[in-house]
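Hey, I'm writing a tutorial for new members on how sequence and structure tokens pair up, and I'd like a real worked example in the thread rather than a made-up one. If someone can provide the structure for the chain below, I'll link this post from the tutorial.
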Amino acid sequence: MRLRLQFATMLVPAALWSQQPASPANPISDTFRSFSHYGRWLIAAFDSIPADKYDFKPTPAQQSIGYIAQHLEYANYGLCEVLGGVKHPRTARDLLPDTVKAKWPKDTLAARVRASLVFCRDALAPLTDAQLGEPVTLTIPGRPAESFPRARYALLLITDLAEHYAQLASYMRILGMTPPSAQPRPGG
């Protein structure tokens, strides 16, 4: 009897495991791609915030909404260039100081953030789990070259998007607005 119980104890998990759907070929990189909701929320936030509020910041030490937008564009391109191995062509406007770019009109800033998120989507699309472990060497002027696994930049991208969405959501609440993630879901 005891032997049958032990056999059944081993057989049940094996039977349950065999009923599980096959795992995707790239579950880790698929997980990074699944965080695209931050990009959608960021765009929805930038689109819903009135243009005359783009210079808003809760305290003098904090970033304005316009500054957050221009920073996201820059960070998205930088991180996703590393992730996808494809360079984003720079223009003279890209080289302007951050404080100047932060004052651009809402439509310009929102369009540029949107374009950077499309660039990131395209950079992440072909990424495989095997590539996440590959070392990427980065050279920053004035610093020695450093190598890190590509996964580091995927984590940085997701945390940067999440951090700045949370920042914008807080600003929206201060302004009496409801952030996109807190909006009622259709049919819900």
